[in-house]
Write a structure and sequence with these properties.
four-stranded antiparallel beta sheet, alpha+beta, elongated, single chain, about 50% helix, about 500 residues, 17 helices
């Protein structure tokens, strides 16, 4: 007995732990929304390219577009142009679009449009980068100034991260004579980034320039320069003006390197204007779209991977254990008497179509008439099988009659009575009549009312949209329910209704 108890406890612990772990993985790691109403951000980015084409020469325009290899994935990407050929190539970690035309003249306008999201970006690729670089060639006064700056930088740094941060701060100390010499009067951010790269190269610390766009809606945007270096495990991002580390959450990496955003052959006066706007989409729908547009496949092996019609069926099926749990609690903990465990659940399922109020009326009417017929058949002394056959046939005729009269009276809800399980109604009538004979009319009425109450409560809980979504999306919670059911299977304590039954006995004992 002791070994059986231990076995049961281990089984319950395994089921509950497994259910919680799988559900937590879906929520925390995969990022699946907990509620159906949860939404996620979508960013719509337009890059408008304008230039003046030369009528004499072929036109070739190249522009960097986001590599989308960090935290964002693309849901839609389009290149809008008139009579231009379009191609996209990957070069040194960048993506570059090329528009080309044999002949074009005058003002030209091209568009690049991107719809992206941050959620459901799947597994991040393994990061790689250089950990050593050769020194840039420098001599004369500039070399002396650079070495003078490097001495305190080395003294005040402990690793690559602090070395780069200290170097950026030194370069931004514009009162320093060595910095003035190296900047040569140009204090622009690109020039300070150039001097920072020079200092780091002398120390053989690799550094790259990255250009980002800030994801802020309805504001003019220009590419923002950042610096980054690889420490052997991750890329470290630095603000070239402040030395602050860490690329903010709202920055989208657009391209890497010293090249200009756009180059034009066969044209002039090229400009790029960015416009951004933000919208929201239902999170679970976004997850489906992400599955279709990326390598993410966490929904492919969920119930959302089934055909739509099958999904609707399973949305009902996964709620049946919830209804069974409700009946189990009502019977084992509260002590409510019903016609078995599954009969109320099946009646609750029928209430989904008939609606609760009308369903109770129909169930009561059919059961009452069926009991009357069963009582009449009892006087004919029929055997059980013929008696059940007659009752079943009567139930079918009665359902057809109710549907016909409801249709004639314009009560279309009455047509849904056909969804009541006929066999369940027949067995309910049979079992209620037997209970009536064996334990009396009051007990039979008590069981009938208990069955209706349990079915109604199960229907209300099984119809909660938030609960249906949660169980369908995270079916591992059913393992937790199984663990709870197993625990209740060994419950031998008092039921709530039994406390009422023994109340007089308790008072009598206290009086003694």
């Amino acid at each position: 007995m002791r070994s059986l108890n231990l076995h049961l406890k281990i089984l319950i612990a395994v089921l509950v732990t497994l259910g919680i772990a799988i559900t937590a993985y879906q929520i925390v790691v995969l990022g699946i929304p907990v509620t159906e109403d949860e939404t996620d951000d979508l960013w719509n980015i337009d890059a408008k390219v304008e230039f003046v084409a030369s009528a004499k020469d072929p036109v070739k325009i190249q522009m960097f577009v986001p590599p989308l290899a960090r935290d964002y994935i693309s849901l839609n990407e389009s290149f809008i142009s008139n009579n231009y050929g379009v191609s996209v190539n990957r070069i040194d970690g960048n993506r570059k679009v090329t528009w080309s035309a044999r002949r074009a003249s005058g003002n030209q306008t091209l568009y690049y449009r991107l719809v992206l999201t941050k959620r459901y970006n799947g597994d991040k690729p393994r990061t790689k980068g250089p950990i050593f670089r050769d020194s840039m060639i420098i001599d004369g006064p500039e070399k002396i100034a650079a070495e003078a700056l490097l001495a305190p930088i080395r003294q005040h740094s402990a690793d690559v991260e602090t070395f780069i941060g200290e170097a950026i701060k030194r370069v931004n100390t514009l009162s320093d004579d060595n910095v003035k010499l190296l900047l040569a009067g140009d204090t622009s951010t690109p020039n300070k980034a150039r001097i920072t790269e020079l200092l780091l190269s002398i120390a053989h610390v690799p550094m790259e320039k990255v250009h980002t766009i800030r994801l802020v809606a309805d504001q003019p945007q220009t590419p923002e320069l950042w610096l980054r270096s690889f420490n052997g495990k991750d890329w470290l991002y630095f603000n070239p003006d402040t030395g602050a580390q860490g690329l903010p959450e709202d920055r989208l990496l657009w391209w890497i390197g010293d090249e200009n955003l756009i180059t034009v052959e066969g044209g002039k006066k090229a400009t790029v204007n960015f416009s951004l706007n933000n919208s929201e989409m239902n999170a679970i729908r976004l997850a489906k779209l992400t599955d279709e547009n990326s390598d993410a496949d966490f929904l492919s092996y969920s119930l959302y991977g089934l055909p739509l019609q099958t999904q609707q069926t399973f949305m009902i099926m996964v709620m049946i254990p919830i209804g069974v749990l409700v009946i189990l609690i009502l019977r084992n903990l509260i002590g409510l008497q019903t016609l078995g465990t599954f009969t109320p659940v099946l009646i609750a399922l029928a209430f989904r179509e008939t609606q609760l109020g009308f369903g109770i009326v129909l169930f009561t009417l059919i059961t009452a008439l069926g009991l009357s017929l069963r009582s009449y058949l009892e006087h004919l002394k029929l055997q059980m099988l013929p008696r059940l056959s007659v009752v079943l046939t009567f139930v079918v005729v009665l359902i057809a009659a109710i549907s016909l009269f409801s249709h004639k009276l314009g009560l279309e809800r009455g047509l849904s009575v056909a969804l009541f399980p006929m066999v369940i109604l027949t067995m309910t009538i049979e079992r209620l009549s037997i209970t009536w004979e064996e334990r009396g009319a009051s007990h039979a009425m008590k069981v009938a009312i208990g069955t209706l109450f349990a079915a109604s409560l199960a229907h209300l809980i099984m119809s909660v949209p938030e609960l249906t979504y949660f169980v369908f999306t995270f079916p591992a919670v059913l393992l937790i329910l199984v663990g709870f059911m197993l625990a209740m299977g060994r419950y031998r304590g008092y039921r709530l209704t039994e406390l009422m039954r023994f109340k007089a006995f308790i008072k009598e004992e206290e009086g003694k």
